[in-house]
Specification:
GO terms for molecular function: DNA binding; DNA-binding transcription factor activity. This is GntR family transcriptional regulator. InterPro entries: GntR_C, TF_FadR/GntR_C, Tscrpt_reg_HTH_GntR, WH-like_DNA-bd_sf, WH_DNA-bd_sf. By secondary structure, the chain is mainly alpha-helical. The chain folds into 2 domains: 74 residues, Orthogonal Bundle (Arc Repressor Mutant, subunit A), CATH 1.10.10; 144 residues, Four Helix Bundle (Hemerythrin (Met), subunit A) (Up-down Bundle), CATH 1.20.120.530. The chain contains 10 helices and 3 strands, in the order αβααββααααααα. Strands 1-3-2 form a 3-stranded antiparallel sheet. The radius of gyration is 19 Å and the shape is globular. The N and C termini lie far apart (47 Å).
Length: 233
């Protein structure tokens, strides 16, 4: 590797690292939807060059988390409730496919991991611990996606998650929703563990359709009060 190649690789790595930090800050609510992301301020905050900040913002723009406007800079992208519903409709198709593939390819260790996650979800619901419940549902979806071993689907779902994440924590706050979500995830895991691919796909799609029904119970005014750092319902 030449000196210039090494320097380029180092710059790319720094921009990737900064992109990870910015992504986390946005998803955890440190930057609100619509908030301006000023390069000079971000450079000082993260002790990085303006060039690294600019490259990181381009990366997040590609993920749908940030909007870049000519001569106006960048801002955190605000997703409407209607968009969140459309995104969840797309997720239903992709995650249904992932669930079917997971049912066919899951190892014994992966099946046991799913059982452990469901046990944790059950405890969280019994304890009325919404944050833990939401975190564990997120983990179930991630585990299913990984078990599917389908890189294209995984990449598409990761972007969709970034774009609609703040709405799904609001769904988890709806009365009775954790109990419904627990039952749906329990049925999903049973189908995957049993190797029933068609049933797993059907249950996953039905689960996300029920999420859409719950999203429709949220008004746009309610959703604007949610932190962006929510998790899957």
């Amino acid at each position: 590797m030449t000196r210039w190649q090494a320097m380029s690789t180092s710059r790319d790595q720094r921009a990737d690292d900064l992109g990870t930090q910015l992504r986390t800050a946005i998803l955890e609510g440190e930057f609100a939807p619509g908030e301006r992301l000023v390069e000079a301020e971000l450079s000082r905050r993260f002790d990085e060059t303006r060039a690294a900040v600019r490259q990181a913002l381009i990366q997040l723009d590609g993920e749908g988390l940030v909007e870049r406007e000519r001569n106006r800079g960048a801002k955190v992208r605000a997703i409407s409730l209607d968009e969140a519903i459309e995104i969840t409709e797309a997720r239903a198709v992709l995650e249904g496919l992932a669930a079917a593939k997971a049912a066919r390819s899951a190892t014994d260790d992966e099946r046991e991991r799913l059982r452990e996650l469901i046990a944790g979800m059950r405890e969280a619901v019994e304890d009325s611990d919404i944050v833990r419940y939401s975190t564990l549902t997120h983990a179930v979806h991630d585990a299913v996606r990984e078990m599917a071993r389908q890189d294209t689907v995984a990449k598409l779902l990761e972007r969709l998650r970034y774009e609609s994440v703040r709405y799904h924590f609001g769904v988890a706050l709806l009365p009775g929703r954790p109990q419904v979500g627990l039952r749906e995830h329990d049925e999903l895991v049973e189908a995957i563990v049993a190797g029933e691919a068609e049933q797993a796909e059907k249950i996953m799609r039905e689960h996300l359709m029920s999420v859409i029904d719950a999203l429709r119970q949220l008004s746009n005014e309610d959703s604007r009060r949610l932190l962006p750092g929510g998790r899957y319902s």
